[in-house]
Amino acid sequence: MTDAKSSYRQIIKSTSIFGSVQIFTIIISLIKSKVIAIVIGPAGIGLIGLFNTAINLVGSFTNAGLETSGVKAISTVSHDTTLLAREVSIVNRLVWISGFLGLITLMIFSPLLSQFTFGNTDHTLSFILLSATLLFKQLTSGSIIVLQGLRKLKYLAKANIYGNLFGLLIAVPLYYFFGIDGIIPSIVLSSLLSMTIAFLYKQKVRIETVKLTNKEVFTEGKQLILLGFSLSIIGLLTTLSSYLLQVFISNYSTVTEVGFYTAGFTILNAYVGVIFTAMATDYYPRLAKVCSDTILVRKLVKEQSEIGVLLLTPVIVLFLAFAPTVIRLLYSEEFLPIVPLVCWGILGMVIKAVSWSMGYILIAKGDSKIFVKTSIAFNSVFLIVNILGYYYFGLEGLGITFLMNYIIHFLVLKIIVSKRYDFAFDNEFYKLFGYCSGICIITFLCLSIEFVLLKYILLSILILISLCFSWIQLNRRLHFKDFISRNNK
């Protein structure tokens, strides 16, 4: 088997494992979303969105970016049991410290967050109660860091599946019986269960415990902290820009509009973006291992981009063809106003697949300065452009500006990685990227055809073309027959 074929198969294998997990997660989210949509409606979803974004805002500041820098650190020393034991001990200690920091910070700033988010201090107690989730989430991250860094994919998959399943079993009765009053206990208990399950799976990996002083932790973990702090700033900026946008929408319009935005954003990033989550689990540790070799980095990023584009193209075409039906299925009839937002935004996903793959080069290289600078620029543009888009064109304007942001992100990252790391795609990739983008754009244009029969005939043809094209291209790289037979042995 050639190295290229082996690499493509590793990407597909890890993507299929976590793709299955994410599909299961989507089903759980679907059930939860349906219950929330029916019981508490768009306003309830808007309220949940505001709470979660505010929590994530504080978490982005206090979590020190350990969920990313920790994976890099552990994957780098995974071959040496002695170094691995020390690195895991350092990560564990830092996770506890940052978790308590998040809890205390959210408690202190609860009145301010309530005032800024809702215009009054009525939700101060809610934020105080939610502060525990920052500790639980950070401890969950500590377990996930170890499993992902060591590429224990099956344990990681099971931790995700059971965490989401038990979270659903807790959330649904709370929303059903208590309505909006069930939001706070649902968020807290779900995060507690996720933490417990992730910890149990981490315990299955036998790693020697090393006793370290606080001085040793901060001395030896200095690089991890510096990179993590840079990443936490980036996470903070991303969450802050999203939070400010939601606050603007809430103040300019209503909480219901925030609910529509949250639902649309969830579809793009959680449901369609499932492929990114599935791929990142194994992609980042692999890229971190070869980050010093320019040729291997080019190869891996190209392969990852190709697989991402080929997997996403039929998903985008199918979604565009059946957007209203999908939204009714995921939420309810009330949420149909988000159709234009999602249709414009989903066009950018094929572009995001490529920029997302390139973006990991900066993290794998540990180039925190350039990463922070670009993130400040990207998030500033994101916030300004999206506010203008919503102000002038409403929800559809947000979809258009999402697409614009994806294009800007791709072009700027392409220039950076080209000049800084001598990275480039070959002509073969650009042809593939052009074909897939073209199929998605034509599908989008077909939506405006008024003659219904003609529209759905063309959409059916495009669905068939996208599925056949992706299948043929993937088969060229993987030889599915051999791949399936090998995995069945």
Describe this structure in words.
- The protein has helices at 3-39, 41-62, 66-76, 81-108, 110-118, 124-149, 153-178, 183-202, 214-220, 222-252, 255-272, 274-289, 294-321, 323-330, 339-347, 349-365, 368-421, 427-446, 452-478, 480-488.
- It is an all-alpha fold.
- The protein has one domain (3-488).
Largest sheet: none
Radius of gyration: 22 Å
The percent range for helix content is over 70%
Instruction: Outline the low-pLDDT stretches.
Output: none
Structural class: mainly alpha
User: Which H/E pattern describes the elements?
Assistant: HHHHHHHHHHHHHHHHHHHH
- Percentage of residues in strands: under 5%
Please give the domain count. Answer: 1
Average pLDDT, all residues: 82
Count of DSSP E strands? 0
The shape is globular
Number of helices: 20
**How far is it from the N-terminal to the C-terminal residue, by CA?**
16 Å
